[in-house]
Amino acid sequence: MTRLLLSATILRQKLRLIHQLRLQRRYPQVNYKSSDGIGLGDYDNDGDLDIFVTTSTLTPPQSTDVFYRNEGNGVFTGVTQQAGLWREGFDKDAFFWDYDNDGHLDLFIHSWPTYAAGKTSVLYRNNGDGTFTDVTKPAGIAPLEVDSSGANYGDYDNDGWLDLCITYHSSPTYLYHNNGDGTFTEVSKEAGIDGTNSGTVSFLDYDNDGDLDLFTGQSPIGSADLMIKLYRNNSTPNRWLQLKLVGVKSNRDAIGARIKVKAGELTMLREVAECSGGWYGNKQDRLPVHIGLGQNSQADVIEIRWPSGTVDVLRDVPADQLVEVK
To answer: The domain 3-237 is classified under which CATH number: 2.130.10, 3.40.50, 3.30.420, 3.30.379?
Structure first.
């Protein structure tokens, strides 16, 4: 069964973290005036969560997003410029994901170009050396020059590659299929995604049939009857697994756990993430973790690194089932 994470709880946890760090002076003072989003992810594979903070400023001078590397001893270091993530604009939210299955978490940011001309949503590829490169255009993603109200990822066709959905205030919803070669193809019409003026977005398996469905929430522009949409996924012949992690030494929902899956020629990295989906308040996200296996009948190896540091390894796990791990 799909479990939803309410954003209010996650948001409070994020704000509490920032407040505690500020009181303890464990990260440098920064020049942002307001922030609407935080992305958490272990970008450098050192076993602890790093923090990306989006900023939004209506009046000049515009502030920049801020990226903090977790040093593992309760101290965070600002590495925005050296990581290649220095960016002025009006960014609303961000998430880490491994879209190219290279074992390094990449970064997606969705934005409001209305208040920062030319600063549309952006995909940064993690180079694996502590730096990121803007690959939005070469990856085939074409963000609109309008305000994005949400973005999220999920493997809707269970081929082992994470796909992307972006929603907009006054424009259609865009679904991008991951081609598995570092590029995406926009497939909204072919997939039957016809929403306009949508708010936040979530992938979830609401009918428990093994593929991810799509839910888009309400934008503040327009009628709720027109904006809220639930799309049932009618595909796919590909195989899948769902992992429900229950923390014992770690937090109950295992937020921050890292999962590596090997299935045939596929090698995938997934993290149990904090809430994503968009800026507008009532966003939700899913548990358990959904993993597409392509045509493979099993996951050969599943390695789970819990937030506590404990590592569990599962082998030869049959496809098409929910597996609970404690």
So the answer is: 2.130.10
